[in-house]
Amino acid sequence: MGYNNHALIEAAKSPEMISALANRPAIGNFPSKRWNDQLRDGLLRVAPRGLDKIFTAQSGSEANELAFKAAFMLYRRRERGENVEWTAEEITSCMANAKPGSPELAVMSFTNSFHGRGFGSLSTTRSKAVHKLDIPSFNWPSAPFPTLKYPLEENKDANNAEEKRCLAEVERLITSW
User: Fold this and answer.
1) φ and ψ at residue 110, rounded to 5 degrees
2) CA 9 to CA 39: how far, in whole Å?
């Protein structure tokens, strides 16, 4: 559409666009009156069956960080038991980054993956050293991602073997980490 497009500039002057830009509800703070309708009639309308909840984030890295935290919290809640309060030992130990309040849990990622520049996301990023140099990271596992040969129809046997190899390593990491 090009730079300085007259139609886009005029649309940007609309009350809806002004509200969207001035009141960006990326993390749920002060959403517009229409936010719920926009999510329901926009994203949820095309969501896969059974996925009826949305949590917005400002970036992919932030979305990954929040997903990691949610997964850890759900796992520990199920492990501890629903509606079971934290113990005094958990509360005290987490402030020292120690067990049991700071458990040894991990997120598995894949070679050549990029998940963002937050601390947890960087620990799962495996694509370029420039993103990770000089940054401490969690000792989390990495599995190989299948490197397929193309055209697919001419390389079925090699690709099937590659996928089986990678899946076997994923299973090994899940059961041994």
Assistant:
1) -120, 150
2) 25
For residue 163, CA distances in Å to 120, 143, 156, 158 come to 27, 12, 10, 9
Spatial distance between the Cα atoms of 40 and 17, rounded to a whole number of angstroms: 19
For residues 126 and 113, what is the distance between their CA atoms, to the nearest angstrom? 5
Distance, in Å, from the CA atom of 90 to the CA atom of 132, rounded to the nearest integer, reads 31
Q: Which residue has the tokens 């969501």?
A: 47
Are the C-beta atoms of 110 and 130 separated by less than 8 Å? no
Give the pLDDT confidence of 92-104 residue by residue, as tens digits.
999 999 999 999 9
pTM: 0.74
Distance of CA 99 to the CA centre of its chain: 25
Contact 35/25 with Cβ under 8 angstroms? yes
Q: How far apart are CA 84 and CA 2, in angstroms?
A: 57
Distance of CA 26 to the CA centre of its chain: 15
Identity at 172, one-letter amino acid code: R
